[in-house]
Design goal:
By secondary structure, the protein is an alpha/beta fold. It contains nine helices and eleven strands. The protein is about 30% helix and about 25% strand. A nine-stranded mixed β-sheet has the order 3-6-7-2-8-1-9-10-11, sandwiched between helices. The protein has a two-stranded antiparallel ribbon with strand order 4-5. Bound molecules: iron/sulfur cluster (2 copies). The site of one iron/sulfur cluster has 14 residues, from α3.
């Protein structure tokens, strides 16, 4: 494997859901033809809904550690229960040769801090990895897609996001693809920060609403903090021309480059219903605007993706 192999990673963000980010990402994937695709939203992955993936590989995600009591070794002293700050130890474990009840761990409450394992006088507690979700590699017409699903209720989505982008980089090396297109998670929290690591360029998809403007500002501040150049595209721009102009002015002031405006278009919903990226409806206004957006940004991307 070539250690000097570098990928150009374009991350598409929106700050909030519902701006049309995934539809635009799927369309850019179609235009790029040979990117490695990553859906970084491990809590609600939906890029796959527009790319008709065929599953190539499925792996468990060992997300965290949890305590397990070995009932044969436990003498029911209760020390672990006293020490656990999360109330995750219960005293109704199975009997063994010495005691009628042992202690056991509630898997839904254990936070994996390992304090109980460290202090158990009989070394009856082990820390074991637990499956926190799955990650996948799928084949699509647009290129290989790396995606994942975190088990509901688990809070470490940033870690799984980091894992799938690392897997995507390895895949890019293996298949010699230098362009990675990442559909980012919503918000500006831990999963977004995990997605930003190593990103060369951000594309923010926003919309002309007060919440769109607010979230755009937060994403641009984050991008500035990490010194990542940022493009901005206003989706459904014609719903409020004044708001679009003001969003574009503010984005420019914050150092971003405006690369496109996409009109409101019912074809987007129609394409979604059919499980297709809107770019496949070639004559539609949204598809034409995305094509223009692609013409602007593709000269800055690796040559093979043009
Ligand atoms: S500290 Fe160890 S021996 Fe004591 S109750 Fe807990 S598991 Fe059992
Ligand atoms: S690992 Fe921590 S949270 Fe889990 S049972 Fe032990 S003390 Fe409680």
């Amino acid at each position: 494997m070539n250690e000097n192999f570098n990928t150009f990673e374009l991350l598409v963000l929106s700050g909030k859901g519902g701006t049309g980010k995934t539809s635009i990402t799927a369309s850019l994937a179609t235009l790029a033809k040979d990117a490695v695709l990553v859906d970084c939203d491990v809590d609600a992955s939906n890029l796959e809904l527009l790319l008709s993936p065929s599953l190539r590989k499925k792996e468990p995600y060992l997300g965290s550690m949890q305590a397990r009591v070995n009932a044969d070794l436990c003498d029911n002293c209760g020390m672990c229960m006293e020490l656990c700050r999360f109330g995750a130890i219960l005293s109704d474990g199975p009997a063994n040769a010495k005691v009628e009840h042992t202690h056991r761990v509630s898997p839904t409450s254990c936070e994996g801090c390992a304090v109980c394992a460290q202090f158990c006088p009989h070394s009856a507690i082990d820390m074991v990895p637990v499956v926190g979700g799955e990650w996948y590699v799928s084949d699509t017409m647009q290129g290989p897609l790396v995606h994942a699903r975190l088990q509901p209720g688990l809070g470490n989505s940033g870690k799984l996001t980091t894992l799938i982008r690392d897997k995507a980089r390895m895949l890019a090396r293996e298949c010699g693809r230098t362009f990675m297109l990442l559909d980012g998670p919503p918000g500006i929290g831990c999963p977004v920060i995990a997605s930003l690591t190593g990103t060369k360029q951000i594309l923010v998809v926003t919309e002309p609403t007060p919440s769109g403007a607010h979230d755009l500002e937060r994403v641009l501040e984050l991008a500035k903090h990490f010194k990542i150049p940022t493009w901005v595209c206003v989706n459904k721009f014609d719903l409020n021309m004044d708001a679009t102009a003001s969003i574009e002015a503010r984005a420019t002031e914050l150092g971003a480059t405006i690369v496109g405006r996409i009109p409101y278009d019912n074809s987007v919903t129609e394409a979604q219903k059919q499980g297709l990226p809107v770019i496949s409806m070639r004559a539609s206004p949204a598809a034409r605007a995305i094509q223009e957006l692609w013409s602007k940004i593709s000269p800055f991307l690796p040559e093979q993706s043009n």
